[in-house]
Amino acid sequence: MAQFEEVSQKSKLHPKPEGLALQYGTAGFRTHAKHLDHIMFRMGLLATLRSKKTKSTIGVMVTASHNPEEDNGVKLIDPMGEMVTAVWEGYATQLANAEQDSLLKELKDVIEKEDIDMSEPASIYIGKDTRPSGASLSRAVLDGVSSLGGKTHDYGLVTTPQLHYMVCCCNTHGCYGSPTVEGYYQKLSQAFLQLSQNASNCTDDQKRLLVDGANGIGALKMTEMEPFLCSKLHMVLSNDSSSGKLNHMCGADYVKVQQNAPQGMNMGVGERCCSFDGDADRIVYYYTDSKGCFHLLDGDKIATLISTYLKELLTQAGLNLQIAVVQTAYANGSSTRYLEDVMKVAVCCTKTGVKHLHHAAQEYDIGVYFEANGHGTVLFSKAAQKQIQELVKDPKTNDERKRAVRLLESTINLINQTVGDAISDMLVIEAVLAIRGMSVQDWDAIYTDLPNRQLKVTVSDRRVIDTTDAERRAVTPEGLQDAIDSLVKKYKTARSFVRPSGTEDVVRVYAEADTQENADRLAHEVSLAVHRLAGGVGDEPKPLH
């Protein structure tokens, strides 16, 4: 077939280094940019097959998110802007690792298994972040698509969530919005401005927000978007990529891990600050108090702020819709207790990983999910959106209910439901704080995090640990969960769990308790139990104090 002849010829321009094997995970492929040329070409091929199979536009995003600048990566985006399915992740790994002479055989294998009609047209949207390697790598994707006769729209520099948004807009034929960067800015800014009208007399100080752009694409896009916000938000942008390196000592991941302000940001006492990550799909907030203490408001705090705001609006609107917050075992116990006991919001716990959270959130009328690292969004079921829209239009709706449903409608328009989006999430948080007249300190004071500690223990084989109950209890090895249970009983408001890493032979240990000292002690004692019962390698873990 002439079609495969072109694949064969073009693949020689993007040869696979012998012996290199990579796995497509939740974040797609990620590694040093010099190893990725053949991967990009092959993901162009796979995206084209996926498009023909689904009869829809598919996205290909060239990014390595919060990784260092010299890395790059790629992820595929399915028709509704969601991550590609697990079966196709398997095909991605299969194609990526095929040696040069067996690439066509593997390609035909996917076509056969999926019964793909190769005469179907294919449409691919491509985007990239600001990494220097992005230009040549996205050209390799274009080569892959064109060698199977697919059509492409290259958006150039966009945030990852923007490309997810474009793909969803295209496949819903404009119902979700206009598939252009300007369309994205207009939809979000209009919703933000409508919400801002409900905030009582904000001072310039209250509108001021310090933003760390991680020297990445988010900084570039915020600069483009700022005029659309009509001075309702005064952003002071640092790490705007004019001088620093991407993600180097800045960005959401750095701030979360180091529990410290990013370099290059001049924070005043009590000033509200936030950080994006490298491709702008994560956000965390923070401030320093008058004693110089750093306060981080992570994904748990964001989920709590947004879900309590939505719960209040549902009550005011008289809508009987079920709202739930989806967490993982890593969510701080204080946030879970506050949501369940004080706010009476349902909390569902699921396995670690955005995919699991997104899937669980789809089970509710309104599902709020955020990982502690600041990646998350809110999902509204079709039925919930319909009820809200009908109430807005109903002439019998009284003023208080109408105000609440209008706020809900604008909030839905402001949220990027396809994926976690730092820009969208930031605007939602800013609108909620302004409407409720809250400072960042008020928000932080909603509940106090329990002190916690995370450790890891190297083992000879991580597969000896099997878990259940959303990774909160160990099933194997025998005796480990009993040991954890008896250790936890020694401390106040304590809990601990262990789970195998997804990528290396280590077991991750999490512990929380009433004091930092007790959390540290519990984490150490549990790691000793793991080392003894799960085949620890090397010396026993040393106490932290």
Automatic annotation (TrEMBL):
It catalyses: N-acetyl-alpha-D-glucosamine 1-phosphate = N-acetyl-D-glucosamine 6-phosphate. Pfam families: AMG1_II, AMG1_III, PGM_PMM_I, PGM_PMM_IV. It is an enzyme of class 5 (isomerase). Belongs to the phosphohexose mutase family. Keywords: Acetylation, Carbohydrate metabolism, Isomerase, Magnesium, Metal-binding, Phosphoprotein. Binds 1 Mg(2+) ion per subunit. SUPFAM superfamilies: Phosphoglucomutase, C-terminal domain (SSF55957), Phosphoglucomutase, first 3 domains (SSF53738). The active site is at S65. Pathway: Nucleotide-sugar biosynthesis; UDP-N-acetyl-alpha-D-glucosamine biosynthesis; N-acetyl-alpha-D-glucosamine 1-phosphate from alpha-D-glucosamine 6-phosphate (route I): step 2/2. Catalyzes the conversion of GlcNAc-6-P into GlcNAc-1-P during the synthesis of uridine diphosphate/UDP-GlcNAc, a sugar nucleotide critical to multiple glycosylation pathways including protein N- and O-glycosylation. One of its GO terms (biological process) is carbohydrate metabolic process. This is Phosphoacetylglucosamine mutase. Its EC number is 5.4.2.3. CDD domains: PGM3. Mg(2+) binds at S65, D277, D279, D281. InterPro entries: A-D-PHexomutase_a/b/a-I, A-D-PHexomutase_a/b/a-I/II/III, A-D-PHexomutase_C, A-D-PHexomutase_C_sf, A-D-PHexomutase_CS, AMG1_II, AMG1_III, PAGM. Residues 207-284, 298-436 form the Phosphoacetylglucosamine mutase AMG1 domain. It comes from Sinocyclocheilus grahami (Dianchi golden-line fish). Its cofactor is Mg(2+).
